[in-house]
Amino acid sequence: MTRIAIVTGAARGIGAATALRLARDGHAVAVLDLDEASCSDTVAAITQAGGRAMAVGANVADSGAVQAAVARVTEELGAPTILVNNAGIIRDNLLFKMTEDDWDSVLGVHLRGAFLMSRAVQQHQVEAGWGRIVNLSSTSALGNRGQANYAAAKAGMQGFTKTLAIELGRYGVTANAIAPGFIVTDMTRSTAERVGVPFDDFVAHSVADIPVARAGAPEDIANAAAFFCSEEAGFVSGQVLYVAGGPRA
Ligand code: NAP
Question: Which of 41, 133, 163, 204 has its C-alpha lying 20 to 30 A from 28's C-alpha?
Fold first, then answer.
């Protein structure tokens, strides 16, 4: 069945791969990112493959922008019942060097963003009696040097997910989280740059600790998201799936 999906942070990386995958599964997809123009490649890839998509520019941490974005999607594509909270940023620093702005921006995009988007979309899911929410956590939720802000946000995503599962289950809505390990995207590229290591060396170093002996690709995460969004996953809710090429936690 065709549903209307919103994927945040879908201009590139994991979000773009997830938007493409959901479109391939037959859903109409709102490709949401900070800058509407940056969504055009993802939208073009979907439409060229015969799918339906629209670009939406919005800051997920801004309540007014979120409400306007969800209203626009509802008007132009239809009432959204699938939401993938993927938008994310990193502002890594050791605790003693971490600024309040580093803390607030990371918590703002990941946690406040997922809260605002989920609150806006649940209304349509409850009305439809069906919905899927997928939140992006991370293996960093278990602790990661230099990421006190990001680890707190990604651990917070897990508690947020479990609570949505409990509150919304009776309306046919499931909520699950994916905790990716090392995935090759602009985010991991910028981490390598920040620590001053050539990206290939950075990848090789990370892969040495991954049991399946390769780095993750955005499609690895998109595949997991597609499962959680499927009709068949209706009895799976409140779970955190580590997609990290090996066991975690
Ligand atoms: P990415 O390549 O940096 O893409 C993130 C996207 O989110 C960018 O297009 C970015 O837009 C957008 N975004 C940032 N702030 C936003 C906001 N306030 N409102 C709307 N969109 C916003 O990152 P990625 O690696 O694909 O990561 C996607 C998600 O997976 C994130 O939640 C990340 O924390 C999580 N994750 C990634 C990894 C990994 O190894 N890559 C591992 C674990 C978890 P701009 O380009 O305009 O900033």
Answer: 163
pTM equals: 0.98
Task: Count the helices and strands in the chain (H runs, E runs).
Answer: 9, 7
Model pLDDT for residues 153-206, shown as the tens digit of each residue: 999 999 999 999 999 999 999 999 999 999 999 999 999 998 999 999 999 999
| Residue 237 tokens, joined | 């809710």
3-class DSSP state of 56: strand
Structural domain that includes position 225: 4-243
CA–CA distances in Å: residue 11 to residues 8, 19, 126, 146, 177? 8, 9, 28, 26, 20
Q: Give the distance (Å) from ligand 1 centre to CA of residue 240.
A: 19
Answer positive or negative: Cα dihedral of 157, 158, 162, 165: positive
User: Which residues are marked as active site?
Assistant: 150
pLDDT value for 248: 75
Q: How many domains does the chain have?
A: 1
- Residue 248: inside a domain, yes or no? no
